[in-house]
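As noted in the main text, all predictions were made from sequence alone. Below is one such record, for Hemerythrin-like domain-containing protein.
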Amino acid sequence: MDRVSLSKEHAELDALAVRLLAEVDAKAPGETLSALRWRLNHVLMVHLAKEDKVLYPRLLAKPETRALAQRFASEMGDLAKVYLGYASKWTIERIQADWQGFGEETREVMAALRRRILREERDLYPRITETATYTATSASMAPCKM
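Prediction:
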């Protein structure tokens, strides 16, 4: 795992969030909503597992990045809990019953996710290059449990 692969995942997550936001602007759920939600969940969980298992431990081990990593890890835990609550709350049945409510909550959660991506790209990921080159096989990463 390196900064480039993490940034590519961020780009995919952002693109998926934009697509999901476009979906909730429709008058009713579209045929691709379930597949889009599944892909977003999958990419996000794999990405978080990489950060939790490799990136944060290495940044926490370095005195020059420890405080920054602690702050980001703490904040990410909060966002992950919010996202997992959102994902489990909104079953397809509930979405169909409350499309407007789903849209409102989706806009809030996607905005938080996109802000997080921007902050990591701007404030955290540049420190990866400064502190070390990371190598890990992402195949060994299991989705994180939050």
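Confidence is low (pLDDT under 50) at residues 133-146. Residues 94 and 103 are 12 Å apart (CA to CA). These features were considered when defining construct boundaries for the mutagenesis experiments described in Section 2.9.
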